[in-house]
């Protein structure tokens, strides 16, 4: 029973006190005067009566009512119902107020005064019960009595109110009558007693009556309609936000202008939080004076009047809910964790069905009639029911995770959070984690944890309805039915008898409310009279029998265990039974000592242990092998068990949510091995490196779990066997279901407790306490086992774990002294690396002390015991340290675990080890091949060592998988190619802990992902990184391997003074007398034998007299300055320049030939200039340059200034047929561009410097144009129709036909918005281009010499034109040709062709105007920036060699390749190159003038020469091309390759690699045009990045001369092993083996290649993708030969044993395919060499053998062919495409029975007449016809018809492949007239002449073909020809 009201208070305006102009309230009277013992009077009521402040108002306000809530120091809530009305002040009171005002303001009273002022007065009822309506009625009645002046004295009414006693809930069965006149409801004797208990009809004695209904169960909150109201005000989502915020302890502030609404909203929020109770600050109405409370750091729920809204604006972390505006404002810094899905969605659905049931049917055509929301009170309960249902789902199964650690005297219960989250699979859920950590949940556990107590609706729901909830959760309507049932129960609880509510309460009459004057102030009450009422009631209560509240206690049901729920949901990580079987088998093998079997299964077991069920299975299996808490193993068993334990623990989080670590804890102290006499090593010393052991929460949960088991065992009246119940089950929280659970046992004990005697009770309390104490000692030992490292000197813990870190553990229970000492010691000691072992001991002691303090305080251990524990712990730790020292000593003596032997790598000559091998593990990266996932063996991960040499980084080891066999895995790359190094931490399946590792990426498309073994100290790993960095980025280029090779790592940085090149030096002494000798005709025309003539000085002198060099007119000055300044070493250099500067090539091209007579040399259009001989004009150019004849050297100086880096235009190649030249330069300086391209005729006032230079530039370009034969021959304007030239040897028609092609190309290169060819999807097949054959002349005579271009590739033969003609805007003029690519005739003929096209950068050429009279034209193109190339290459590397595996579709290889845009860049470069080739081929010169002239320019210029000139497709030519365009013309190899420390920041930009890739693309399309193979290109690409050779170092010839490395390469003979030039190395290797040679090489004369450039035609270079794990990269040949010789030795020894299998397994990504499966020809050449060696003959060089076979093959075919075909044509290899296609087949199939076969293909089709040869396009169409393939032999034979038919000439074709002899009407005929199957031919016999035979034919020319069906009579024109035919047919027959 409880008082309805504790206090009645009258509060009024305090007229005497005012603070700062604001009024105050004061308590006028309170009853009772003395505080009740059970509920003290709350302070500060006067503030809460007027929360906005006490003020006087000029008008009377209506009476108001609200309930404020105050919380006392004991967290009890007091409900203050305030009824406020307004009273007028009389004049003396007013004066007092005015005086007060005047005093404060220090001035006269104000003149204007209101006639009347009203002051507020409040009647307040203070109660611990929340009956808002009852209080409203009672206070309203008192006011009515006062206002209406009713007869009942106020004292009586108030006395009755204060003595009213009502049941709290459920009530007493004794129905006593209190003192106040409480009318009981008339009852029949049969009436239920509950009615009396639940409702009291009270009257306050003023003729009133009201019923108070008390709830059936006071545990459930009473909400009225406040929850529904809250949802109406704010909406579903907002309230859910507030709900989650309140549960996760955020600050919530409600704003409203109504006080009662604030109280209701707060009450509603608390109601939906049930069963959790809010335990922080709760102030529904906060007075304005106390607003500073809002800045408290703790969470709160507070309501404030909207009047104070502005004060709440600056609150940063408060969620503000505006009830009037319906908004919730969440600050940016606040993150609210929401309910986990799908709960959130389901809750929202349910709420919307309650609040807005019409929503569901709003779209229906015939909505139900009666769909309306329930009444507000019912709706309120329905909403609360939804939240109850929500909590039942959130907390389902929580009782299975309760640990009961004491039963008597009071149950002490702890919640195992980790197990709960683990079994719900919600460890990642933010919301639930925060709720479980919160204060509300802690209260929930302490209130609802006890197993024997009164239960309520929630207990029933969470225990018995879980199954129903789970089945219905996805059916909203079933959920709604359930919600309605729950709502009904909630409503019943609040309104047990809604029908009986009879209220009769007077209200003030209308008249009394309206009349102001008549009112008297509220009287002062007679306190004695009221006190008498109270005393009387108290006395009566004392005399009546005590009220016994019968609590119906019962055992709380637990509901279904959690495990089942989750299993049915399928959330458990499914491990197949097979995996568990593997784990079980492996453990059985280990304990049966079948170690080999166990070893095989081990990798599979470690993989299986990733799954939770497999880990649980492991702990269960291991448990079975423990006897009496001990299991002694041998070394190998121990090692395996520890490995499995580590693997199991490594995936455990620090929470151990699945109880795996808990289950292993008893096992790690059970498994051990004997180390020596009396020394045993336990498993715990090997599994300490896991986070879980340093987590305080884990130890607490483990401790409580064990205590629970022991307490349970204490009370179990079963036999000993059951006492040790299965501990894992308990730790899982699920318990064994057959046994009684600990909570049930505790409930039973609690029920019996009151029946026990005092002694029994005491005995049980003591037993429990000592059980806890003994467990605490046990755990102190356990913790010291797992926390003290085996080597206690290492001080591991302080640094790496959380032990030394105070913050890492919740230290709410830690005593200050311990925490303080810990923090202090951590600060002072942790900094030392080699601290004493006592540090470790101290930190462990502190950790254990903290643990013991916490658990013992919670579980009620006595103080004496706690002190004993504190003294014991240091001794335990010290004792354990001593034991460990002995174990550590002995374990060191153990033979180390058999780790794989470290294999030494083979090194190159001159390569030296910098750091010896460190044991590492090579981890698989994102490439699947080596991991065995694509079939094949799992080569990775592998264990071995990493070696750092002066040249490479090498990993060599063996696969970790025991089943792969004795394979050696090698992965290496040159240090110079390292692009990125990144630290990683790696968890190896094999080992127990996370190791530090490195990820090293190389631009040779290699990735080393290594993890250092535990034996590698971290400082060693660090020093490895430093050495690596030092070698990767040396201070100077001379620190690179190419320079330091063989110098044992000493860096020579001083300049070289000694001249190595002695022979050349003596030569130069003789030569350099003056400048004229420096450049003489010899240096150009010099052949290899030239020096002999140079020695003759006398002739030299005489020649010089008349031999004026064609260099320049003003030779003298420059010559004198040169010779006077030149030093001897420079002279030698100069003569080298003469030799080297690619002059041979210039001479070959006819660009700089010097001749005897001046006149002849004047006719030469170009000359070699020595203006740059001292590199003064341009440092990055070569010393000798080709410029127009009439341009003088001084002019060059001036012109060069206009160009970036002074790289002015120079000629680098000339077309042999059209004599058009190719020039290269850098882009113009920005200032020169516009002036250069604007019309030169523009008048200028003053000729400035810029004008003169631009004029000179113009002259320079004009000089180039004049040098072209086409220009000099033509007169006036040169239109295309008249554009013919003797030099071109082509007819006009062919030129016309060629021209549109350029237009198309030009458009593509320039591009337009409609079409960007750089997309992956677009192929070249869809182009509707009218085919324009390149040259299809009518006259065959002319055509013989006409150049035949070649479009596309053999493979792409089906396509005729890959170029889309619809791009671009112009050809060379303004008009464009027809869309289909054909000439737009009248315009076409008028189009003017420029003599010089300048390919410039679009960005640079803005503002330039085309001049109609100039003879050059600018083609602006977009250039790929160097940065683009760099970024693209980075992405390409990541695409080809990903660092980790991924299944995301966006990360697939093709997607990443597309994102890298590498192919797009190739496409652009090739496209521009093909355009330039076309322009040159039509007779226009081209100047490539892009960026700085050393990146894209070099690429384009090189590719143009390669495509146009077959010479550059040979070994010598390609070398020359690279030396000339890349090395001499100054491509910045060092800078772009980031080879030194200085260029480190610029990063690696592979411009040269991009060029090689372009060459590779062309090679793919024209496999028969290149003398070198694909391997040659890969070799160059690899060594371009490797820094093994000096060839690709330094940025220009100038730098090379400065370092003295340009000319030393050939002369250095000291160390023949070390090649300094990559070219020498290739030559050397080429002589030995045909690795670089392309067997399909058979070029066509003057062949211009025009490759397809669309992305669809480009292929990814296999250089980027292939890997050879057996030997590492196959580009260092010495290594290959050494490895082979090493491999052969053991093989020979082994031969004596078992018969050797001839079968060899070839693994992709492991074996080098070219080595194990050489192509047919290489194989035959090898076999030939081996045979020669066996026979003791001196073996011939492969090239000689090959050439011999080729020539014999050709002569054979010459004999076979008809004499009318000239042999010269055959010898020139000018063969048709058909032969080429067979060549491709040969190479691709890698098969060939003999070399003859290979060459048959090469020399077949000899009878094809070349004279009237059709164009390329018709050749491609032939591929689709059937007959015309495979013509082995063909020609004209006469055939006799059937009887009486004449002889007719027919064109016969012998087809050896199809085994047919076919004949046609004539050669051009496509339709076969007849076929003779050779399989039917029985004989070929010599025939005799018959009637009608052709005349003039020899007798021997007749022969007959006999088949099984008929006889064929044939006759050739000559007898020799007939013999050839007969032989050929005969050989075909014999072949068959």
Summarize the structure.
This protein is of the alpha+beta class and 1936 residues long.
List low-pLDDT spans.
102-112, 171-198, 564-574, 718-738, 795-802, 804-837, 1049-1131, 1154-1160, 1232-1250, 1275-1300, 1312-1349, 1352-1391, ...
Multimer state: single chain
The proportion of residues forming helix, as a percent range, comes to: 40-55%
Strand content: 5-15%
Order of strands, widest sheet: 25-24-23-22-28-27-26
Could you report the average pLDDT, rounded to the nearest whole number? 74
- Radius of gyration (CA) equals 51 Å
Structural class: alpha+beta
N-to-C CA distance: 119 Å
Helix tally equals: 70
Shape call: elongated
How can the largest sheet be summarized? Answer: 7 strands, antiparallel
| Number of E-type strands | 44
């Amino acid at each position: 029973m409880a008082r309805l009201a504790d206090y009645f208070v009258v509060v009024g305006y305090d007229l005497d006190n005012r603070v700062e102009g604001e009024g105050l309230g004061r308590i006028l009277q309170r009853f009772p005067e003395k505080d009740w013992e059970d509920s003290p009077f709350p302070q500060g009521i006067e503030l809460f009566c007027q929360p906005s402040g006490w003020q006087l108002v000029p008008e009377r306000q209506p009476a108001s009512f609200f309930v404020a809530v105050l919380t006392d120091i004991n967290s009890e809530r007091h409900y203050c119902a305030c009824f406020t009305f307004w009273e007028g002040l009389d004049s003396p009171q007013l004066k007092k107020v005015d005086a007060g005002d005047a005093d404060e303001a220090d001035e006269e009273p104000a003149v204007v005064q209101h006639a009347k002022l009203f002051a507020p007065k409040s009647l307040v009822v203070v109660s611990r019960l929340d009956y808002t309506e009852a209080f409203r009625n009672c206070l309203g009645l008192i006011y009515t009595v006062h206002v209406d002046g009713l007869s009942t004295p106020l004292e009586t009414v108030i006395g009755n109110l204060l003595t009213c006693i009502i049941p709290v809930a459920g009530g007493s069965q004794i129905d006593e009558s209190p003192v106040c006149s409480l009318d009981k409801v008339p009852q029949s004797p049969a009436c239920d007693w509950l009615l009396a208990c639940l409702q009291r009809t009270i009257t306050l004695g003023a003729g009133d009556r009201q019923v108070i209904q008390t709830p059936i169960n006071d545990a459930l909150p009473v909400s009225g309609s406040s929850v529904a109201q809250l949802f109406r005000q704010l909406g579903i989502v907002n309230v859910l936000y507030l709900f989650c915020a309140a549960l996760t302890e955020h600050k919530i502030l409600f704003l409203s202008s109504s006080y009662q609404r604030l109280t209701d909203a707060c009450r509603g929020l608390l109601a939906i939080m049930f069963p959790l109770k809010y335990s922080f600050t709760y102030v529904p109405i906060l007075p304005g004076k106390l607003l500073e409370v809002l800045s408290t750091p703790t969470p709160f729920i507070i309501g404030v009047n909207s009047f104070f809204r502005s004060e709440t604006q600056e609150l940063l972390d408060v969620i503000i809910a505006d009830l009037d505006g319906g908004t919730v404002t969440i600050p940016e810094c606040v993150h609210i964790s929401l309910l986990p899905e799908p709960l959130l969605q389901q809750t929202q659905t349910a709420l919307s069905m309650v609040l807005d049931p019409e929503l569901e049917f709003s779209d229906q055509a015939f909505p139900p009639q009666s769909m309306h929301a329930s009444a507000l009170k019912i709706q309120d309960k329905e909403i609360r029911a939804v939240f109850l249902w929500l909590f039942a789902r959130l907390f389902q199964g929580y009782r299975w995770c309760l640990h009961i650690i004491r039963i008597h005297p009071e149950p002490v219960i702890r919640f195992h959070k980790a197990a709960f989250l683990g079994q719900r699979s919600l460890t990642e859920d933010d919301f639930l984690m925060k709720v479980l950590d919160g204060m509300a949940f802690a209260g929930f556990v302490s209130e609802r944890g006890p197993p024997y107590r009164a239960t309520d609706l929630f207990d029933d729901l969470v225990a018995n309805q879980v199954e129903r909830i789970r089945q219905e959760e996805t059916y909203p309507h079933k959920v709604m039915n359930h919600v309605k049932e729950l709502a009904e129960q909630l409503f019943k609880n609040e309104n047990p008898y809604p029908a009986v509510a009879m209220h009769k309460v007077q209200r003030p009459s209308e008249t009394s409310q309206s009349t102001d004057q008549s009112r008297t102030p509220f009287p002062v009450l007679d306190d004695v009279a009221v006190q008498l009422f109270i005393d009387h009631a108290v006395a009566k209560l004392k005399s009546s029998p005590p009220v016994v509240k019968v609590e119906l206690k019962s055992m709380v049901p637990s509901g279904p265990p959690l495990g089942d729920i989750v299993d049915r949901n399928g959330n458990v990580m499914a491990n197949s039974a097979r995996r568990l079987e593997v784990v079980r088998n492996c453990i059985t093998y280990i304990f049966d000592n079948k170690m080999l079997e166990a070893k095989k299964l081990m990798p599979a077991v470690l993989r299986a242990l990733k799954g939770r069920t497999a880990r649980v299975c492991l702990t269960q299996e291991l448990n079975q092998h423990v006897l009496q808490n001990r299991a002694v193993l041998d070394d190998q068993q121990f090692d395996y068990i520890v490995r499995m334990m580590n693997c199991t623990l490594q995936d455990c989080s620090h929470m151990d949510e699945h109880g795996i670590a808990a289950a292993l804890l008893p096992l790690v102290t059970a498994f051990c091995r004997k180390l020596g006499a009396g020394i045993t090593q336990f498993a715990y010393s090997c599994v300490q490196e896991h986070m879980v052991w340093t987590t305080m929460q884990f130890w607490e949960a483990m401790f409580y779990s064990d205590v629970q088991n022991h307490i349970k065992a204490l009370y179990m009246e079963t036999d000993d066997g059951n006492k040790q119940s299965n501990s894992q089950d308990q730790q899982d929280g699920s318990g064994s279901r057959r046994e009684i659970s600990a909570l049930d046992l505790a409930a039973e004990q609690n029920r019996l407790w009151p029946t026990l005697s005092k002694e029994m009770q005491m005995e049980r309390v003591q037993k429990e306490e000592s059980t806890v104490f003994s467990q605490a000692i046990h755990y102190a030992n356990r913790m010291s086992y797992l926390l003290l490292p085996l080597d206690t000197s290492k001080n591991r813990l302080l640094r790496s774990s959380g032990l030394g870190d105070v913050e890492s553990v919740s230290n709410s229970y830690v005593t200050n002294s311990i925490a303080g000492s810990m923090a202090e010691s951590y600060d002072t000691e942790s900094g030392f690396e080699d601290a004493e072992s006592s540090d470790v001991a101290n930190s462990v002691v502190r950790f254990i002390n903290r643990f013991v303090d916490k658990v013992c305080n919670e579980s009620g251990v006595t103080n004496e015991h706690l002190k004993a524990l504190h003294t014991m712990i240091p001794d335990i730790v010290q004792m354990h340290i001593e034991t460990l020292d002995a174990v550590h000593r002995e374990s060191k003596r153990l033979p180390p675990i058999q780790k794989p032997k470290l294999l030494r790598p083979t090194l190159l000559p001159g390569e030296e080890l910098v750091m010896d091998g460190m044991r590492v593990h090579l981890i698989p990266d994102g490439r699947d091949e080596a991991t065995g996932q694509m079939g094949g063996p799992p080569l990775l991960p592998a264990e071995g060592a990493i070696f750092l040499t002066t040249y490479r980084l090498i990993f060599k080891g063996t696969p970790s998988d025991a089943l792969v066999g004795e394979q050696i895995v090698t992965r290496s790359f040159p240090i110079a190619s390292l692009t990125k190094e990144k630290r990683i931490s790696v968890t190896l399946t094999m080992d127990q802990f996370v190791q530090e590792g490195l990820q090293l990426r190389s631009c040779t498309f290699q990735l080393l992902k290594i993890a250092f073994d535990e034996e590698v100290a971290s400082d060693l790993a660090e020093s490895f990184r430093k050495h690596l960095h030092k070698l990767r980025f040396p201070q100077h280029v001379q620190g690179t391997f190419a320079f330091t090779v063989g110098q044992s790592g000493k860096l020579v940085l001083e300049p070289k003074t000694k001249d190595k090149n002695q022979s050349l030096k003596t030569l130069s002494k003789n030569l350099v007398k003056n400048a004229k000798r420096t450049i003489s005709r010899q240096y150009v025309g010099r052949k290899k034998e030239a020096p002999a003539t140079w020695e003759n000085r006398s002739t030299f002198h005489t020649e010089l007299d008349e031999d004026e060099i064609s260099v320049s007119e003003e030779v003298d000055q420059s010559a004198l300055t040169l010779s006077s300044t030149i030093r001897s070493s420079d002279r030698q250099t100069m003569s080298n320049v003469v030799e080297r500067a690619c002059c041979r090539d210039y001479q070959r091209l006819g660009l700089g030939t010097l001749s005897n007579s001046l006149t002849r040399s004047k006719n030469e259009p170009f000359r070699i200039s020595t203006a740059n001989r001292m590199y003064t004009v341009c440092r990055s150019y070569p010393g000798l340059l080709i410029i127009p004849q009439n341009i003088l050297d001084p002019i060059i100086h001036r012109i060069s200034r206009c160009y970036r880096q002074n790289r002015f235009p120079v000629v680098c190649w000339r077309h042999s047929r059209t004599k058009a030249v190719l020039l290269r330069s850098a882009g113009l300086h920005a200032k020169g561009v516009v002036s250069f391209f604007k019309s030169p005729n523009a008048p200028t006032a003053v000729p400035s410097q810029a004008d003169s230079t631009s004029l000179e530039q113009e002259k320079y370009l004009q000089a180039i144009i004049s040098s072209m034969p086409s220009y000099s021959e033509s007169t006036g304007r040169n239109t295309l129709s008249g554009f013919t030239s003797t030099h071109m040897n082509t007819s006009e028609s062919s030129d016309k036909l060629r021209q549109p092609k350029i237009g198309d190309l030009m458009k593509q290169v320039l591009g337009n918005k409609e079409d960007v060819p750089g997309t992956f999807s677009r192929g070249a097949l869809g182009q509707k281009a009218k085919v324009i054959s390149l040259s299809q002349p009518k006259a065959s005579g002319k055509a013989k010499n006409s150049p035949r271009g070649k479009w596309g590739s053999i493979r792409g033969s089906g396509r005729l034109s890959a170029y889309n003609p619809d791009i671009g805007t112009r050809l060379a003029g303004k008009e464009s040709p027809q869309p289909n690519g054909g000439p737009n005739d009248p315009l076409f003929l008028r189009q003017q062709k420029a003599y010089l096209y300048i390919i410039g950068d679009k960005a640079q050429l803005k503002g330039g105007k085309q001049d109609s009279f100039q003879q050059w034209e600018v083609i602006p193109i977009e250039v790929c920036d160097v940065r683009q190339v760099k970024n693209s290459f980075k992405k390409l590397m990541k695409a080809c060699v990903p660092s980790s595996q991924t299944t995301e579709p966006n990360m697939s290889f093709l997607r990443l390749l597309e994102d890298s845009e590498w192919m797009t860049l190739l496409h652009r470069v090739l496209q521009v190159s093909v355009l330039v080739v076309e322009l040159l081929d039509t007779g226009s010169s081209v100047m490539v003038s892009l960026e700085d002239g050393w990146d894209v320019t070099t690429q384009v210029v090189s590719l143009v020469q390669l495509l146009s000139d077959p010479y550059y497709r040979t070994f010598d030519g390609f070398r020359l091309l690279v030396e000339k365009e890349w090395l001499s013309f100054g491509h910045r190899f060092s800078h772009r390759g980031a080879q030194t420390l200085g260029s480190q920041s610029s990063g690696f930009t592979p411009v040269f690699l991009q060029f090689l890739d372009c060459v590779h693309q062309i090679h793919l399309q024209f496999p028969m045009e290149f003398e070198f193979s694909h391997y040659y290109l890969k070799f160059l690409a690899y060594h371009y990045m490797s820094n093994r050779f000096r060839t690709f170092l330094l940025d220009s010839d100038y730098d090379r001369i400065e370092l003295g490395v340009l000319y030393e390469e050939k002369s250095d003979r000291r160390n023949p092993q070390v090649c300094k030039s990559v070219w020498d190395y290739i030559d050397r290797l080429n002589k030995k083996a045909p690795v670089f040679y392309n067997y399909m090489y058979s070029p066509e004369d003057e062949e211009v290649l025009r490759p397809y450039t669309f992305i669809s035609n480009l292929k990814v270079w296999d250089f980027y993708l292939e890997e050879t794990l057996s030997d590492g990269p196959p580009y260092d040949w010495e290594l290959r030969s050494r490895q082979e010789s090493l491999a052969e030795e053991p093989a020979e020894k082994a031969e004596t044993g078992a018969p050797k299998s001839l079968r060899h397994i070839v693994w992709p990504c492991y074996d080098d395919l070219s080595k194990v499966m050489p192509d047919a020809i290489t194989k035959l050449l090898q076999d030939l060499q081996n045979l020669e060696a066996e026979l003791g003959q001196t073996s011939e060089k492969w090239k000689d053998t090959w050439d011999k076979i080729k020539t014999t093959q050709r002569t054979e075919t010459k004999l076979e062919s008809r004499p009318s075909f000239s042999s010269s044509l055959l010898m020139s290899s000018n063969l048709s495409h058909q032969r080429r296609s067979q060549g491709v087949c040969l190479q691709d199939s890698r098969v060939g029975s003999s070399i003859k076969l290979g060459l048959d293909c090469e020399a077949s089709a000899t009878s094809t007449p070349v004279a009237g040869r059709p164009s390329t396009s018709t050749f491609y169409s032939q591929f689709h016809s059937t007959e015309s393939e495979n013509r082995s032999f063909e020609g004209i034979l006469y055939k006799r018809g059937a009887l009486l038919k004449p002889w007719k000439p027919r064109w016969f074709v012998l087809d050896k492949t199809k085994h047919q002899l076919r004949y046609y009407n004539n050669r051009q005929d496509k339709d076969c007239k007849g076929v003779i199957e050779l399989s039917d031919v029985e004989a070929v016999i010599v025939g005799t002449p018959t009637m009608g035979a052709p005349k003039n034919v020899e007798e021997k020319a007749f022969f007959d073909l006999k088949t099984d069906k008929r006889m064929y009579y044939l006759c050739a024109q000559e007898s020799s020809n007939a013999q050839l035919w007969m032989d050929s047919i005969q050989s075909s027959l014999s072949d068959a």
